[in-house]
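Record 1 of the preview.
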Amino acid sequence: MFTLQRAISAGTALVLLSATASSCRKEDVQELVIFHTNDLHYQLHPPKSDYFGLGGMARLSTLLNQQRAQHDLTVTLDAGDWSEGSWYFNLDAGATMIELFNEMKFDAAVVGNHDYLSGPDRLSKLAAQYKKDLPLLGANFSTDGYENGTQFSDAIPGTVILEKEGIKIGVIGLTTVDYVYSFWLNPVKVSEPIAVAQAQAKLLRPKVDVLLILSHNSFSLNEQVARAVYGVDAVISGHSHRKVAEAVMVENAGRKVPVVETGNWGRYLGELRLIVNSKEKWVKFGGYRIHPVDPKLEEDPKITSIVERADQELAALYGGDIDEVIGESEIDIRHDDSHEANLGDIASQSYRASIGADVGLEQLTLTGTRLRAGPITVRDAHDILPHIFNFETGREWTVHELLLSGADLETFLTVLFTAQDLDIPIIGTGFFSHSGVEVDWEESARSSGTRAKITEIRVGNSKLDRSKTYRVALTDGVVLALRVVNDALKLGLNLSRIRDTEQEGWRAIRDWIRIQSPLTEQKLRQGTYQRSRGFDLGVSHYGARLIESGRDLNSRSLQVDIVNDGRSPSPKVILRCYTGAKDDAVKYGTSLQKWDLLGERLLGTISPGARLTETLEGAFDDGIWPVKCELVGAGDSYSGNDEMTVALRAGK
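->
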């Protein structure tokens, strides 16, 4: 069938042909379209947290079928983390997701760090079971010292050659270099990926027309891979959850190599086009875009049937209704920044309450799916902390009680708040949540050489006592992180007085939500504050809303809360807000998003702990509106909460 898309693709091929190789025949040139996903994390249903209602495997399948029908030559790849990250992992360690991949005709996938959390034995058996239909790749696994290493390497090859319409496509798979999660992979190790990819490319490039690297590593590392591996034509990236609406082009020996990634949770499908001349052995970039998995798409009935079966199995595993409503939240809750009400607050508050501890701790990157304002189900509560099911014990991460001296607690918190000054690769103070303990700190002033320092710590309502023993509640992930940090930095913390309560962390979260509902900003932040000695102005995503302006039925204005979480009054600063393209899910959160100034306000002094609400007049008709607000000239040392971006719905 002739379509506009095919016409554009053919035109692209002809332009490239005439510009670079005029002596070639038209039939020597073909367009290869690579569809790709990454970081699905076993999200079978559309995630509730997506502002545009995107996602769902049944919709993704429909979209794939529609797009494939517009092209003659396609491959479909997944860049890793297809399994652990939601409750379904507990059923089968990812087998249902691979079944879905097969039904949706994926050609290959790479193993990500969350995919090896079931351990090497279970992973290799799963890979061997599906190898014929869907190769799971991992070129930089090292099996030396593993008694089942041969079986593992046979089940999980480093490369695969796919042949489509006479075109040979080589794919190198690179798994994640992750020094914490690699604990679950022992005794299998992960080698440095660039050297491995270079060696594999030398072997594979002469045998294929196109060479792709499927890499589940940070986007910055994957850019290095694209730059360093001679002969690679494209890098399909995963791990960073970065949504790339335009391919990032990297220089490699005089060629431009695209690096692409689609965000996470199956909300977007990537489409990378390469122009291939198999006779003269050259490949050119032909274009890139991402397709939203729109709620208007019909669900593929075959995929829906598999998902419904998984839901039934999950309900049986739980022993009850996984969609029972157990509470509600008055605000959207993310895991972006511990200077705001966040998922880490829910977790740390829950752990502390479950055992009556003095302090609760959680690392934000270990929390899972965000919550939208509204009802909270059992499933939602579980996926706040969806880690990590142990198939031997039948339990996920459990709450531990750690007896920690006041001196050791002070040392640990000092590391968190001075990490950047100590050249420790930790992103500010906003990545860790603590409950039951509040911290006053003095920010660093690099211009004068002054380093950050903690000025006071309060546990409960009392100043921290260095000689006292405190009960700290935390789960396996933070226990492991504490041990890694303690050893790496030689902190000398006594972590030996610890016991496992055997209560799963997610169940503590479920019970706490039942009791505390409705969740509010005040409930989440109570006993969690970290206040700078100076002023700390912040604007949060849940502090923005659209209100009826009264001018007419379709006219609304933006209302924004600004809070001073510091100990000193703030100076006058400017609040500046922008709007983006309405209802455009592709542009949102990418380099394509252009911002139009909505308005600005000069803010007066805000007292410590006080909140100011400003209203900016706008013309927000029905739809989903991207909004960005920033505090200009704030000058406080913690900038993580000086800007927020959110998508707000106007109308129903």
